[in-house]
Amino acid sequence: MPNYFLFYLALSFFLAHEIDAVRCKEWRIFPLLELINEQLARTIFILAHVPLFFFLSIQLSCITENESFMWYMDIFFVVHMLMHIGYLKHKNNKFKDWLSWLAIGGAGIFACLDLVCR
Fold it and tell me: What are the TM regions of this chain, as residue ranges (predicted)?
């Protein structure tokens, strides 16, 4: 049986980041959401995570049959980290402290390690 330790560590950091994303009002740096009313943008941002987390849960419940999903998620975690690096200078970016970057970087770095160790 493959070792899933690095993947689940990356996933855990990513989920911690998603909690932090609400605190940092991440919707303010999304190209379309930054243009609309704050309350509506927050609502869309939070509710959009319901089907995403549902899909993630379904995929992870049958991971032995769909291990390629983990590979795709690792790629996503790395791209996500790179996008946050790209948005560092965005005027509405609030991901500035060590805790935010521990979550973002933890997801990306452990995903990279998982990809290398496969």
Answer: 40-57, 69-87, 99-117
pTM beyond cutoff 0.85: yes
What share of the chain has pLDDT > 70, as a percent? 96
Under 8 Å between Cβ of 17 and 104: yes
Residue type at 75? I
- Give me the residue label for tokens 């770095």: 109
CB of 111 within 8 A of CB of 78?
yes
Which two tokens mark 7? Answer: 């993947």
63: domain range? 5-117
Burial of 58 (0-12, 13-18, 19+ CB in 10 A): exposed
Q: How far apart are the first and last CA of the chain?
A: 12
Q: How many domains does the chain have?
A: 1
**C-alpha closest to that of 18 among 27, 7, 5:** 27
In whole angstroms, what is the distance from residue 7 CA to residue 32 CA? 31
Whole-angstrom Cα Rg for the chain: 15
